[in-house]
Amino acid sequence: MTNNSIFRRIRFIYDFSDQQMIDIFALTDVMVTRSDVSDWLKKEDHEEYLDINDEMLSIFLNGFIILKRGRKDGPLPVPEKRLTNNLIFRKMRIALNLIDEDIIQILALAEMKMSKHELSAFFRSPSQRQYVECNNQVIRNFFQGLEKKEGREEQRGKKG
């Protein structure tokens, strides 16, 4: 999945307005414009489409964590310059306060079966032998399941 499709999915699932998206960035003390958000949300074939880079998506996800979990004392998290599916998955897990069973249930809503052992490999340090890179299919199924869990699937069908 592209960064932009992840950005669009989160907006859709949680029904965020442009202003709410801007406010999520502001939670990390980063200011973006409505034009930035609008261009990041456009489809790839639109002439005003703009890629949201790894660092900006990381900032957004850090803001999403703050929105869902509250701001911690101390410095704000440093955004990653390079995001992987594993980091995106980890940030979503933290933001939504998900445990393994929750994620397995969310994946099952998208008809993807996964064991706790398989799942835990995604959240290990890359230096560990049991670490496994999370592929696009897992992330896509996670967001599809999350869409169903949040009751947004019906609206997608009505919109298009």
Notes on the structure:
The chain folds into two domains: 3-69; 85-159. Helices cover 59% and strands 0% of the residues. It has nine helices and no strands. Helix 2 packs across helix 4 (54-69), helix 4 (54-69) packs parallel to helix 5 (85-95) and helix 6 (100-109) packs across helix 8. The protein is globular. The two termini are 20 Å apart.
Class based on secondary structure composition and strand pairing: mainly alpha
Q: What overall geometry do the principal axes of the alpha carbons give?
A: globular
Low-confidence stretches: none
Rg to the nearest angstrom?
Answer: 16 Å
User: How much beta, percentage-wise?
Assistant: under 5%
Separation of the first and last Cα atoms: 20 Å
Reconstruct the topology from this structure.
Elements lengths: L2 H12 L3 H9 L7 H8 L12 H16 L15 H11 L4 H10 L6 H7 L13 H14 L3 H7 L1
Helix pairs in contact: 2-4, 4-5, 6-8
Summary, kept brief:
The protein has nine helices and no strands.
Features:
single chain, 160 residues, mainly alpha, 9 helices, globular
